[in-house]
Amino acid sequence: MKKKIAELKHHRVELLARIAAQREQMSAIGADLRTPFLLADRGVTVVRYLRSHPLLAAGVLVIVVLHRRNVAALMGRLMGVWKGYRYLTML
Q: How far apart are CA 25 and CA 17, in angstroms?
């Protein structure tokens, strides 16, 4: 009986070590996926906002269509304007 208990204790220690290693692996996987999930979450937030403000969405669409080549630079400027607007409205 004592031998069986000793085997079970040893097996338990091995399982706990395996669990700790798996937790570390899951943590690493979660860290790798954090940025894509945050980006996707931000995209969903933008889409929801644009759906609730259809005129703004139409305006953004027109700007993107008219300025296809400089969309990245234009979006950067628009984000700057948007942040400035949000800052001023929070005062």
A: 13
What's this model's pTM, rounded to 2 decimal places? Answer: 0.44
Query: 71 and 64 in contact (C-beta within 8 Å)?
Result: yes
What is the DSSP secondary structure assignment for residue 68, as one 8-state letter? S
Show Cβ contacts of residue 8 under 8 Å, excluding neighbours closer than 6 positions. Answer: none
Helices 71-90 + 54-66 axis angle, to 10: 150
**Residue spans per domain, the chain:** 1-52, 54-91
Query: How would DSSP label each residue in 20-52?
Result: HHHHHHHHHHHHHHHHHHHHHHHHHHHHHHHHH
Q: What is the C-alpha separation between 30 and 46, in angstroms, rounded? A: 24
| Chain segment 39-56, per-residue pLDDT in tens | 899 989 988 888 888 888
